[in-house]
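Researcher: Going back to the complex we discussed earlier. I've cleaned up the inputs and rechecked each line, so this should be the final set. Can you rerun the prediction on the complete assembly and write out the structure?
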Amino acid sequence: MAVASARRTGSNRIANFKESVIREMTRLALAHGAVNLAQGFPDFAAPAEIKGAAQEAIAEDVNQYAITWGSKPFRRAIADYYRRFYALEIDPETEITVCCGATEGMVASMLALLNPGDEVVVFEPFYENYWPDSLLSGAVCRYVPLHAPEWTFDPQELRSAFNAKTRAVIVNSPNNPTGRVFSRDELNAIAELCREHDCFLLTDEIYEHIIFDGERHIPAMTLPGMRERSVLVNSLSKTFSVTGWRVGWVIAAPELTASIRKVHDFLTVGAAAPLQQAGVTALALPDRYFAELAQTYETKRNLLVGILQKAGFRCFLPKGAYYILCDIAAFPFRDDVAFCRHLLEVAGVAAVPGSSFFSRAEDGARLIRFCFAKKLETLEAAAERLDRLTG
Ligand code: GLN
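Model: Rerun complete. Updated structure for the full complex:
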């Protein structure tokens, strides 16, 4: 039988794509009946108000396409939300594109704004999607290390990552997987380089409300001179515990938004109409909701850090997002992948190998990531199982 040629089984563009290790870990966790602390999603209920709003929207027959770049009421709710939290004035008519999750928001923005050969500065470790997103846009990632244990960058290393081809920088703060919250000074240093080199600043702000120890989230768009060149990506997923809804948005100046909307239109047409309607309710929830979200997650963080330390892990304490990165050097395993396999098969707990967040696997070989967006029972079940590691 003739072997199908590479040309017929996949394009050159995706030749180096690998399966998402994060999502693979969820499948393995299900197959092994393991406690899943791998993929970042909550295992607890979404707020009743927003579930009710989604049900009502469907019953009221909000079941056809919304306007491609987002239903009017939802875009208005997004604008109100940014005024309320950050005193940012956004024009819902010209500066918002509602997308299928922040994932689409990021890739649509990159496809809209980058050309083949352009370079994108990415802080490493990084959320795994940025690399394939860049590749799909024909752009090349240039990595700048975040240094443990604080996960800060060296301003000199950042500066030397810029050259004539640099067209964009991606910042994810609060950061997945390190939990680092970028300071105003750090954001200003990045912004200055973006202005100097005429680059876009793409910010993935999906964990904005999951933030601890009195830290504050700062949208880079609010910094001096950054309104025109910032592209803010966010979604309902993490703030409202609805990762399966796939409703996100991109905020950018009108000329940039016009380009992003062109890509979005042909890529997905639009995000789920009834869920956009429920999004209006979500974004208008009282301040109390957002404060409680952060407090609840802080309690879960502290609980899981205690559990992991007891099991012998060295944890990097996250200041935001819902992951704990751990150093596994004290355990006698070849690398992060071998350790995660052992953890899954012997303890029955799924985590993500650190190498998923690095361009060179060896740089993440001593790290693994646990997610604490879980019910207390789930975290306690994990604690019992982790006892099998040491006991
Ligand atoms: N952002 C989440 C994580 O890092 C979910 C990833 C995904 O599967 N899209 O685990």
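Model: Worth noting: The pocket of glutamine is lined by residues 22-23, 39-40, 127, 176 (CB under 6 Å).
Researcher: Good, that matches what I expected from the previous run.
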